[in-house]
Every structure is written in C-alpha cells, then in structure tokens.
Design a protein that fits this description.
Distance between the termini: 8 Å
Number of helices: 13
Largest sheet: 5 strands, parallel
Helix content: 40-55%
Radius of gyration: 18 Å
Length: 309
C-alpha cells in the first residue's frame, strides 16, 4: 500500500510531548544532536518546560523539527517502510526535507532557529496577528480579506481544511476581517495566540534573510518526493527547493491541495509523524483516506502494522 508521512508545525508542541513514546535512547540521542547545535539542553526544555519558554517561536521550531526527525528515526529502527511521499505543514516542511535526506539534521536545526528569529524580528510583537475563520469557503475568506484590508496587509494564509482558513496581517486588519467574516456567516472567528503573522506579505523581510542563509547550506535532492506548501509541487533541483522554502514564509500553506495531490498520486494512508493530532484532524475533514497520528508508542505500533500489511 502506498502511504505518505506528514509532519506537524508550530502549535503541536507541549511540555513532555516525547514522554508518550517511552524512554527510547534514539529519541534522546536525536535531541542531543540538536542541543549541540543550539547550545542548550533542548530535551530538558521539552521534557520539563516551562511552557512559555517552549512556546517561544525560536524554541518551538527546533523542538518540533527534532521531535519529527527523532520519531522518523525510531520508525526506521522498528523496521518501518520508507513512505512514497512526504509533506509538512509550514515548519513541518523542513522536517519532511530533513527526513527525506534533503538537508542534514544539524544544518536544519540551525536553519529553523534562524528562520524563527527572522520571523520574530520582521514584525514587532503586537503589530501583526492571525485568526482562524471557521465555516466560510475559500472564496468567502478571500473576499473578506480584500474588503477588510483597507490599505493594510490582510491575507488568507493557511488553507487547512474545507471551512477552516487562517488569515494573517496587520492586527487592526485582522480584527476587521474577523468581524466581517462573522457578518458573512462564518461560524467562528478565533484569534490565534501567536506573536508572528506567518505566511503573509509582512514576512517578506524574513524571507530575504532566510534566502541568504539557504544559499550557504547544502541542499540535496531528497531521496523521496516532498510536496511543498507554496506550490503543491515536488522539486528535484536544489535551487528550486531553496526558492520554495523562502517563498513559503510569505505564501499561503496550501494544505488541502497538498493532501489532494497525495491522494491523486495513489497514496491510500497518511501518517502524521510528530506529537499531537492536528494534521489528522484537518485531514479527516478533507480526505476520504485515513490519516493516522503517531501520537504515542501504541499508535506507532498500529501504523507499523498497517503499512506492513
């Protein structure tokens, strides 16, 4: 059976998130590699918190990358088959590329730390915002953004599932967009607890810093295809991968289209490789094929058995 791995991004982190997988030396060893790059004990931060420090963008991004890579290494060590495709939601795209052999793990840890710092410095805290719009179709959310922008930045940035689209931009514009979305019939408009308005035009300065950093990092053609957020495409050229990663910062996450692309390529099972079940929940509302979350030791064993059948 053809299956794919998908990797979660920010928002799936939590203190003690690796404890559900048991005391596996392979997991600790992977985090030790990340800690050597970062200069502090990432495993201790993930295991014990405090939560507000783990939730800082500059810590969340390397923590989620390390978690996904560690679990994929454990998957292979348990005899798991190599998937036909990989993809990742926002930050998770870096995890997918690392697991697919496109970027060395140590380089990826440093890169996502830089990415986080660039994102945070691009927009002062309190200037930007994000909100989830529930119950409006894509066209309706785009119309809301066009009307509510009023000369400021306001864009639809995460197409997560049918009827769930995230908007981002200048804070005042996001607030106007939330109000207009409700007037148009949205079931809910929820402000997200983030300090960075990801994937909108406000991130273009961060994207330029990231592009410069990517130029100095070895990128290889992945050993298996990775579907990118920005263009719903797989790339077999290192410069095209660099470009896709830079554009991702100010381009929408086209998650629904990416999942349809996997299905249309013959994928019949998707496994979410990382803490939490966010992507499995989104995909349940999108696809007619299952997404199983590898959220603990038991679900790891379950997915292993299903993919070996």
């Amino acid at each position: 059976m053809k299956f794919a791995f998908v990797f979660p991004g920010q928002g799936s982190q939590s203190v003690a998130m690796m404890a559900a997988y048991g005391d596996e030396p392979l997991l600790r060893d992977t985090f030790a590699e990340a800690s050597a790059v970062l200069g502090f004990d990432l495993w201790d931060l993930v295991a014990a918190g405090p939560a507000d420090v783990l939730n800082q963008t500059v810590n969340t991004q390397p923590a989620m990358l390390a978690a996904g890579v560690a679990l994929y290494r454990l998957w292979l060590a348990r005899g798991g088959a190599v998937p036909a495709f990989m993809a990742g939601h926002s930050l998770g795209e870096y995890t997918a590329l690392t697991c697919a052999g496109g970027i060395d793990f140590a380089a990826a840890i440093g890169l996502v730390r830089l990415r986080a710092e660039a994102m945070q410095s691009a927009v002062p805290e309190g200037v930007g915002a994000m909100a989830a719009i529930l119950g409006l179709d894509d066209a309706g959310v785009r119309a809301v953004c066009a009307e509510a922008a009023q000369g400021e930045v306001l864009e639809a940035v995460n197409f997560n599932s049918p009827g769930q689209v995230v908007i981002a931009g200048d804070k005042a514009a996001v607030l106007r967009g939330m109000a207009q979305a409700k007037e148009r019939g949205a079931k809910r408009a929820l402000a997200l607890p983030v300090s960075v308005p990801s994937h909108c035009a406000l991130m273009k300065p961060a994207a330029e810093k990231l592009r410069a950093a990517l130029a100095g990092i070895e990128i290889r053609v992945p050993a298996l295809p990775v579907v990118h957020n920005a263009d719903v495409a797989t790339h077999t050229d290192a410069d095209a991968i660099r470009d896709a990663l830079a554009r991702q910062l100010f381009s929408p996450v086209r998650w629904v289209e990416s999942m349809f692309a996997l299905r249309d390529a013959g994928v019949r099972l998707i496994a979410e490789c990382g803490p939490g079940k966010v992507l499995a929940g989104l995909n349940k509302r999108t696809l007619d094929i299952p997404t199983l979350a590898i959220a603990d030791a038991a679900t790891l064993a379950e997915v292993l058995s299903k993919t070996q059948a």
